[in-house]
Amino acid sequence: MYAPNLFQDKVALVTGGRSGIGYGIAEALLKLGAKVIICARKAAPLAEAAAALSEHGTCVQRPCDIRKSEEVEALADLIESEFGRLDILVNNAGGQFPSLARHISDNGWNAVINTNVNGTFYVSRIMANRFFVPQKSGNIINIVVNHLRGFPGMAHTGAARAAVENLTKTLAQEWAVYNIRLNCVAPGTIISSGLDTYAEPVKALLDKMKEENLMQRHGTIEDVANAVLFLASPLSAYTSGTTLYVDGMDHLHGDRMRMVNMFR
Ligand SMILES: CCCCCCCCCCC/C=C/C(=O)SCCNC(=O)CCNC(=O)[C@H](O)C(C)(C)COP(=O)(O)OP(=O)(O)OC[C@H]1O[C@@H](n2cnc3c(N)ncnc32)[C@H](O)[C@@H]1OP(=O)(O)O
Ligand SMILES: NC(=O)C1=CN([C@@H]2O[C@H](COP(=O)(O)OP(=O)(O)OC[C@H]3O[C@@H](n4cnc5c(N)ncnc54)[C@H](OP(=O)(O)O)[C@@H]3O)[C@@H](O)[C@H]2O)C=CC1
């Protein structure tokens, strides 16, 4: 539905682009003409993903832990030497684990906050200073989750993604002067590699969530990628500092707390 050359001459970085939603976003951008860089921690699957994505256009990769700002700086060096510019940043890398709040250890809490909040901030700041501010143009899309009514069963990620959403609002205002837009996409439950990591009792809960969804389904990777394409494109030129829910209305409807009570 988008023009095939929508992102011609544009360069995009997708963090966590080796798998799942990030891979789907990278593929969608490549198919519309963008040159794409993907990063993640695990070198071997990252290299495999970049090789597969290269069928659709120019895709380069570099291992990078977004929690380590020196590794993010090295990633910016690669982008500089390969492409000399960056137009679109999709902060997709992130995650958490299901747990009732009282069982989350200090390390578990810190790992989730560090990944989602610090990692997103480091990548945004470094790419803005290296590319978007000097270019006087840039577009950042932060993948969060639907946490609108809190997130029973994942308190750490609810807190972390709320922080990212607020950061998005702040940076959208501070950086508007540089013609940088920032928005969030908040997926509901999306069928992707991320969900494969969840154990059986959580999978049963996911089935119940599907029954409660007003559209009677989970989302697809394409549902999320299509929202990212819109926010990355000039079609959304007057939209910044906002959140687009891709969740079949889960943010409005459903009783997640009742379902999480299964785990008590
Ligand atoms: C109670 C029921 C709740 C049900 C709720 C269901 C709602 C479903 C809706 C789905 C919406 C969202 C879906 C997704 O986002 S799918 C994407 C999922 N993908 C990922 O999360 C991948 C990335 N995640 C990670 O890499 C890790 O989870 C993490 C963010 C923690 C970072 O990993 P890191 O490598 O730094 O972590 P370590 O292995 O070193 O561990 C650090 C501490 O964290 C503790 N930990 C890690 N995993 C678990 C776990 N599964 N359960 C409990 N604790 C965990 C680990 O033990 C360390 O702490 P300690 O040193 O104290 O042991
Ligand atoms: N699937 C779903 O239902 C939903 C997913 N989301 C969010 O969407 C995003 C993608 O999820 P999904 O594709 O499903 O899950 P995946 O687990 O497949 O994707 C997570 C990606 O992030 C990378 N990553 C994780 N931590 C780091 C890090 N510290 N530095 C660099 N890369 C990292 C992982 O690669 P590696 O391990 O090699 O580092 C992996 O490629 C996540 O932020 C997730 O929380 C939001 C709502 C719902």
Automatic annotation (TrEMBL):
Belongs to the short-chain dehydrogenases/reductases (SDR) family. Pathway: Lipid metabolism. Participates in chain elongation of fatty acids. Catalyzes the reduction of trans-2-enoyl-CoAs of varying chain lengths from 6:1 to 16:1, having maximum activity with 10:1 CoA. Has no 2,4-dienoyl-CoA reductase activity. This is Peroxisomal trans-2-enoyl-CoA reductase. Its EC number is 1.3.1.38. Its main location: other. One of its GO terms (biological process) is fatty acid biosynthetic process. Coiled coil: none annotated. It is found in: Peroxisome. It catalyses: (2E)-decenoyl-CoA + NADPH + H(+) = decanoyl-CoA + NADP(+); (2E)-octenoyl-CoA + NADPH + H(+) = octanoyl-CoA + NADP(+); (2E)-tetradecenoyl-CoA + NADPH + H(+) = tetradecanoyl-CoA + NADP(+); (2E)-dodecenoyl-CoA + NADPH + H(+) = dodecanoyl-CoA + NADP(+). Interacts with PEX5, probably required to target it into peroxisomes. InterPro entries: NAD(P)-bd_dom_sf, Peroxisomal_t2-enoyl-CoA_red, SDR_fam. SUPFAM superfamilies: NAD(P)-binding Rossmann-fold domains (SSF51735). Keywords: Fatty acid biosynthesis, Fatty acid metabolism, Lipid biosynthesis, Lipid metabolism, NADP, Oxidoreductase, Peroxisome, Phosphoprotein. GO terms for molecular function: trans-2-enoyl-CoA reductase (NADPH) activity.
